[in-house]
């Protein structure tokens, strides 16, 4: 059996071997939830970039640009980091450039060495698990965390995926076991389980409770975003 591992924050990624691994990047609040939602609603591609400058360059070249720092939209850009902004019919067929505090940075860190990079959220958990059951590689879930620190919601997602794949993959490392046990503890009511988490408090101050509740819904979409070149597209 192949291994299933969890990296709790991008700052620990150098401790993991990616050469034979599919990396699943997750940033539940809210980057990867936005990516899954956008592709499910007809966005053609999403190009994740690490810096605001790169995002601005792509905007200047005609991309619709989404930029977020510290959970708020960066001035001068088209979209914020709310999944609801990615449901707009005007975005069907669009190419979006996106930069966020944590999630797009994680993708940038993973893409050099991984076999491939997929994007995971609770919204596409089942579709992602189904896809990974057919893969011959190890799996590493890269939790985007918050500015280098682990966070609760990304770890819970990693645990949910670990639980889904426990019969097909070996959970060898403690981070995978920790995530799995945490998820099993909280799965009855994820919303109340994350209620006191730092990121939820941060977002609640900005009045975006609906984004939190939406992002904790499971299996809304049958979409697996995959990084092809520098852009995320829907895997067919």
TrEMBL record:
Q: What is its EC number?
A: 3.1.3.71
User: What Pfam families does the database record attribute to this sequence?
Assistant: 2-ph_phosp (PF04029)
Catalytic reaction list? (2R)-O-phospho-3-sulfolactate + H2O = (2R)-3-sulfolactate + phosphate
Major enzyme class? hydrolase
Keyword Cell membrane part of the UniProt annotation:
no
Q: Which InterPro entries does the record match to this protein?
A: ComB-like, ComB-like_sf
Q: Which UniProt keyword terms apply here?
A: Hydrolase, Magnesium
Q: Which domain of life is it from?
A: Bacteria
**Required cofactor(s):** Mg(2+)
User: Which HAMAP family does UniProt cross-reference here?
Assistant: ComB
Q: Which family does it belong to?
A: Belongs to the ComB family.
Q: What is this protein called?
A: Probable 2-phosphosulfolactate phosphatase
What organism does the record attribute this protein to?
A: Ravibacter arvi
